[in-house]
Each structure stands twice: as C-alpha cells, then as structure tokens.
C-alpha cells in the first residue's frame, strides 16, 4: 500500500481543473470589466460576457465533480465552508448595501468586494475545517 | 460514538493510508474517525467493518 490513498489522489486530481476553472473565470471576467472602456465595442463586450458566463457554468460543473470526487468528510468540510461563505455573503452584502444606501460610504464595486470576500471566507473555511478534523 | 479502528488497524499492521485505500476514503477521514472527531455514515461504517471482517457493532459503539 502507498502512503497516499487512492481517494486522496482522486481529490487532488479533481482540484487541478477546479483551480484552472477559477483562474479562467476570473480572467474572463477581467476582460470585459477592464477592457470595455478601452475598445468601446458593445458587441465585443457582450461576447466576452457571454464567454465569461459559459466559463462560469463550466466551473460550477467542475466544482460539482470536485465534491463528488471527495469522500464524506471532505464533502462535510466543503459544505461547512460554503455555509460560512454564503452567510458572510448575505450578511456582508446586506450590510454594505445598507451603509451605502444610507450614504455613509461610497463603494464603486461592492459586488466584487462581496464575491472576493466570499471566496476568502470559503478558503478559510476549508482550511479551518481541514485543521479541525486532523 | 466510540470505535476500535486504531486497535484493529494496529493488530493487522496496517497504516492509516492502507485502511484509507481499503475503505476508499481519504487518510484524513481515517484519522478523524480514529480520534473520534468524525462519525462515519452508516454505509462507510459497514464498509469499515467489512474491511476488518467484523460486525459493525464489533467496531463501533454508540454508547461512547
């Protein structure tokens, strides 16, 4: 028997397309976000946004496969991390919206802040979950 | 839930990775079950018991 079990290898293999999907989605989002003012072409921007959505859908499918590749403890860790990320997204998003509506702060890209925050909370949740079950 | 995973595994001279491979779970899952930090699902508990060629109640004890 090897020091690394087959399920560990399977989960590690499933992680690679997940990371590639994350980079591809982020990159494809940056193109229309930062590029639109440069080229000023609406059809091109629409095409890039459509491509970003398609990559996003593919990324979700890859994530579902990643979850299926893991065992029940790995899925539990992911589920708990998702719960924290979703909770933080809802609570943080509503709080940011409230202070912005009240005119207390002026944020240009609150959606990006919320999404990035959810990503960080999810990553931290997975890290803490993995440490907890060691 | 208490379990005898650690004792049974050592009796057979298996590493955690060996047991993980035989039960088709990650090594982390074996570690968490052995330490009592994670209770396996019923299908996994049965799979573990079958791996040791024992009955489920010989491996797991719900009075822990």
Can you describe this structure?
The complex is a heterodimer of chains A (134) and B (64). The mean pLDDT of chain A is 90. With 134 residues, chain A is mostly helical. Chain A has four helices and no strands. In chain A, 86% of the residues lie in helices and 0% in strands. With 64 residues, chain B is mainly α. Chain B contains five helices and two strands. Chain B has helices spanning 5-12, 16-23, 27-34, 42-51, 56-59; strands spanning 2-3, 60-61. Chain B has a two-stranded antiparallel ribbon with strand order 1-2. In chain B, helix 2 crosses helix 3 (27-34). Chain B is globular, with a radius of gyration of 10 Å. Chains A and B meet through helix 1 and helix 3 of A and helix 2 and helix 3 of B.
Basic shape of chain A: flat
Helix content of chain A: over 70%
Residue stretches of chain A low in confidence (pLDDT < 50, at least 5 long) are: none
Give the biggest beta sheet of chain A: none
Beta-strand portion of chain A reads under 5%
Radius of gyration of chain B: 10 Å
How many separate helices of chain B?
5
Which residue ranges of chain B are poorly predicted, with pLDDT under 50 across at least 5 consecutive positions? none
**What is the quaternary state of this protein?**
heterodimer
Largest sheet composition of chain B: 2 strands, antiparallel
- Count of separate DSSP helical elements of chain A: 4
Strand content of chain B: 5-15%
- One letter per element, helices H and strands E, the order of chain B comes to EHHHHHE
Tally of strands of chain B: 2
Q: What's the rounded overall pLDDT mean of chain A?
A: 90
Number of strands of chain A: 0
Distance between the termini of chain A: 21 Å
């Amino acid at each position: 028997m090897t020091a690394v079990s087959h399920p560990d290898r399977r989960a590690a293999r499933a992680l690679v397309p997940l990371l590639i999907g994350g980079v591809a989605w982020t990159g494809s989002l940056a193109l229309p976000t930062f590029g639109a003012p440069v080229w000023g072409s609406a059809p091109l921007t629409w095409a890039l946004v459509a491509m970003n959505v398609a990559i996003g859908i593919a990324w979700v499918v890859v994530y579902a496969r990643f979850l299926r590749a893991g065992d029940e403890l790995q899925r539990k860790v992911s589920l708990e991390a998702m719960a924290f990320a979703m909770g933080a997204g809802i609570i943080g998003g509503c709080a940011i919206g409230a202070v912005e509506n009240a005119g207390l702060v002026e944020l240009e890209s609150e959606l990006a802040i919320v999404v990035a925050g959810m990503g960080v909370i999810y990553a931290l949740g997975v890290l803490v979950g993995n440490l907890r079950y060691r | 839930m208490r379990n005898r995973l650690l004792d049974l595994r050592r009796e057979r001279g298996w590493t955690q990775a060996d047991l993980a491979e035989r039960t088709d779970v990650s090594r982390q899952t074996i570690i968490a079950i052995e330490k009592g930090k994670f209770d396996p699902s019923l299908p996994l508990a049965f799979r573990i018991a079958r791996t040791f060629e024992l009955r489920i109640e010989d491996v797991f004890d719900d009075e822990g």
